[in-house]
Amino acid sequence: MAVESREEATGARPNTWATTRILDPSPAKGRWASRMAEVTAPPPTGARRIAAIAWASPTTAVGLLLGVVAAGTWEWREDLGAIVVSGARNPLVRMGGFAGQGVGHVIVSSRDPVPPRLLVHESAHVRQAEQLGPFTLPLYFWWLARHGYRHHPMERGARATARAWVTKTRLAPASGGE
Ligand SMILES: [Zn+2]
User: Pick from 29, 31, 85, 139: CA 20 to 30 A from residue 69's CA?
Assistant: First the structure.
């Protein structure tokens, strides 16, 4: 969630994360903040998936609305367990270097194709919404006001998930957005 290109400027070098950790004055405190700051698991399956879709549905409704406004190409991605709306054409959505945003089970991006690393980052936000349900957006903005974008527990979790994916696939960190 939020403007991803801001992260690209700071997240491209391997050393940045170590520096960030040292400089971070407020590591995620509290059960939910700590949980959100962790690397996320793959999409749930079976009954857990149905429960997750239902629980996240209020947030997904907002994501669907954003997808419609964004005016891009819609695609269901089974591997991500989410709808991806790529190549958003709406200039309002593309403002301020917007790269991507995962809202509930919808990932909206201005890119087409969406860089794999950006997709992994945004799919982490999808998994977070499956846990936080209708509290996702209120908590997102609460933590944003409290911690800022860089130290936001949900953004830290999404960055960690993308980094873990890069390590796993052995792709260069510069190959996509964060
Ligand atoms: Zn994010």
Answer: 139
What domain count does the chain have? 1
- Ligand 1 centre to CA of 7 (Å) is 9
Q: What protein residues have CB closer than 5 angstroms to ion ligand 1?
A: 1, 155, 158
Paired tokens of 54: 């239902």
Establish if 2 belongs to a structural domain: no
Query: From ligand 1's centre to the CA of 55, what distance in Å?
Result: 20
Residue 172 Cα to ligand 1 middle (Å): 19
Domain assignment present for residue 19? The answer is no
Q: Is residue 93 part of a domain?
A: yes
Taking the centre of ligand 1 as the mean of its atom positions, its distance from the CA of residue 45, in whole angstroms, is 24
Distance 124 CA to ligand 1 centre (A): 8
Residue 71 lies in domain: 51-170
| Residue 36 is assigned to a structural domain of this protein | no
Query: pLDDT per residue over 15-51, tens digit each?
Result: 444 444 444 545 567 889 999 999 999 999 999 999 9
Residue 137 Cα to ligand 1 midpoint, Å, equals 13
pTM recorded for the entire structure: 0.81
